[in-house]
Design brief:
With 189 residues, the chain is α+β, with helices and mostly antiparallel strands. It is built from three helices and twelve strands, in the order αββαβββββαβββββ.
Length: 189
């Protein structure tokens, strides 16, 4: 088998580049980041789903008296023609103008898994920061800790590492304490 030499490598301009129009035709669950498709399969593991459900339940309860904000599960956020992401859990404080999001959420939770951890910690971190998402929580089920970042002057600043504590969030006039001890499974998976 012949090895490719550096001069035979494809340049970025020669690689396939996809758009939202392409994305809409794909079967299955995908994300599109800067024209590069990322398969969202296999589906998240049981532990991931249980944590996501607990986050959603708590957010729904906490936002019950907040008329502007609502908790959502994974939903397409169309950032531009070549970037579409699906945060695991999110809060929006605006009324969407269609079936998908086109405006930045106020709070995003991403639950790390072996197949998505790098993308969540680096790629999505940068995207959410650039798009002005005020709060970003990286939930690490393996270590039972959540890293909370808040946007300050266009950059994320770590607010806390929490495991069993509550953390206060302020979103468009709504203030609530999210109890991170309630999201972890009671027994190991």
């Amino acid at each position: 088998m012949q090895r490719y030499r550096k001069e035979h490598m494809l340049s970025a301009d020669e690689l396939p580049h996809y758009s939202h129009a392409d994305y809409k035709r794909w079967e299955g669950s995908w994300e599109l980041i800067e024209g590069i498709p990322y398969a969202m399969t296999p589906s998240p593991a049981l532990r991931h789903q249980r944590i996501s459900q607990k986050i959603a339940w708590q957010l729904e309860e906490l936002l019950g008296n907040c008329p502007e904000c609502q908790a959502l599960l994974a939903l397409d956020w169309i950032i531009n023609d070549n970037t579409v992401v699906q945060p695991d859990n999110l809060v929006i404080c605006h009324e969407p103008t269609g079936d998908f999001l086109t405006q930045a959420p106020a709070l995003i939770f991403e639950i790390l898994s072996p197949s998505t951890a790098q993308k969540d910690r680096v790629t999505k971190f940068r995207i959410y920061e650039q798009e002005g998402v005020p709060w970003y929580c990286l939930v690490d089920p393996e270590n039972r800790v959540s890293k909370i970042y808040r946007l300050h002057e266009g950059q994320y600043v770590k607010q806390a590492d929490v495991s069993q504590e509550s953390h206060e969030f302020v979103l468009h006039g709504c203030r609530f304490d999210f109890n991170f001890s309630k999201i972890w499974p009671h027994k190991p998976d």
